[in-house]
Design goal:
The chain contains 4 helices and no strands. By secondary structure, the protein is an all-alpha fold. It has a domain at about 200-250.
């Protein structure tokens, strides 16, 4: 049983109680009125009590009058007793039938006209409340699903960003290592080239110095000897001078 049906039960009980009370009031009102009227008539029909009994030596005329009054009171009591609704079952039966018919009419009108409207109103309210509760539940479920999806997307984005950062750092480290290796290679090549250039320049300078020195030495020797040297002598002097210069450069 739903909560709305449970909430309807007090209202249904209240309405049925009202109908029963109305029906009982219709049934009992005529009976109560008849009993009230009968009680009043009985009170008025009772003979007056003079407080003392008739003496044994009363006159015959007084005795006859007293007996007449007793008979009149008894006959009046019987007539009023016969007029009571309890003593007339037909009238009570017709009253009950009338009350039942009235109850049936009221119940029929209530069941066919009033109760369907009440039922429809309660059903509409119940449907509205159920729809609102269902919509709220669906909204809550959708919000929960959206929150889960958002948290999932956020976690994926964080993981992707972390991975990209690590990849970037690794690429930077690799690129830095490559640049350093390339710079070291270029520096080593530049050093080798500079060393070779220096060696070449030094050898060229030494060769020029040797040539100039040998030429100068030849001229000086020719002047000293006052004669021209032959080509063989000249070559021999050059070789000797070069050997001496090489030995001097090695020692330096």
């Amino acid at each position: 049983m739903s909560s709305m049906t449970t909430q309807r039960l007090p209202l249904i009980r209240f309405l049925l109680t009202c109908v029963c009370v109305m029906t009982l009031s219709v049934v009992l009102t005529p009976v109560a009125s008849a009993q009230g009227e009968h009680g009043e008539e009985t009170t008025h029909a009772q003979p007056e009590n003079h407080g003392e009994s008739t003496p044994a030596h009363a006159e015959p005329g007084h005795q006859e009058e007293s007996g007449h009054n007793d008979e009149h009171a008894a006959s009046g009591h019987d007539e009023h007793g016969a007029a009571s609704p309890i003593a007339k079952p037909k009238e009570a039966m017709w009253t009950a039938i009338t009350a039942l018919i009235a109850f049936g009419v009221v119940f029929f009108v209530f069941a066919t006209k009033i109760w369907p409207k009440i039922e429809k109103g309660l059903s509409d309210r119940e449907s509205k409340f159920r729809d609102e509760i269902k919509a709220a539940e669906n909204a809550r479920i959708q919000a929960k699903e959206a929150l889960v999806e958002y948290e999932k997307s956020l976690a994926e984005a964080r993981a992707e960003a972390k991975q990209m950062l690590e990849e970037t750092r690794a690429q930077q480290a690799t690129y830095a290592a490559e640049l350093k290796a390339k710079a070291d290679q270029e520096l080593a090549a530049m050093k080798d080239k500079a060393r070779r250039d220096i060696d070449s320049a030094r050898r060229a300078a030494v060769a020029d110095i040797y040539n100039e020195a040998s030429t100068l030495a030849t001229k000086i020797a020719g002047k000293i000897l006052q004669r021209e040297l032959s080509a063989a002598d000249h070559q021999r002097l050059v070789d000797e001078s070069l050997a001496e210069l090489q030995s001097i450069s090695r020692t330096n």
